[in-house]
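Contributing new records

If you add data, match the layout below exactly. Sequence lines come first and carry their own label; structure lines follow with theirs. Keep one chain per record. Anything else will be rejected by the validation script.
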Amino acid sequence: MPLDSLQQREFRIHGNNSYEAIVIGAGHNGLTAAAYLADAGLSTLVLERREIVGGCCVTEEIGEGCRASTTSYIASMLRPEVIRDLDLASFGLRMVPCDPFLQVPFADGRIIRWWADRDRAAGEIRKYSERDAKTFLRVDDQLKKLARYLQPFFLEPPPQLGAPGLAGLLELLRVGKRFHKITSEEIAQFVTFLTGSLGEFLDRQYESDQVNHVFGEQRLRQTWRPLPAGNVAGTALSSAQRRRA
């Protein structure tokens, strides 16, 4: 929204209340943050421009008599700690397994299904390429190892390695402790995943166009945009997170 439009708007909060925390946007992330802030004892206000809260997780009518989640398609990144802390089950949350969580049809009538069981998923890939099926299992092992280094940071403040003095040193030690067992090979893989293009990564790893399409479809559903450099990590973490059990 242009700045002049913002300046012309009047925002009024009824009453004389003051708040220690104000969350802009009542999407799923905003509501989660607000719940934790309120639970910590802070008086919290949540502001939302729409008449409905939930953001990407809302269920709305997309056609006459047809209701669906209009943006979010799966809850693989919803941490069990959040479910427990916010007691979401008491509000009616029920996790329904999505298996297969992805199905990609092709012009020849065949379908690749990405099952939660990785051996079963590899069997789908094997229909197109024995080499790609083996690669899938190898890459899956690599992603799970790398994800173990990063997943603890999901529920922590971002590392502040540039903090001055003792605080910076303690932060460096905290982060370093997480990575002290990492190998040089894993560091190289991290660089590839954090800076590389998913398209280039897939081209190097897989020989089958159909298998490339499966991974590309997954990433497009997550971002709704092309696949530029630096997007391997997002796909890697979300895939490893989905299969963390």
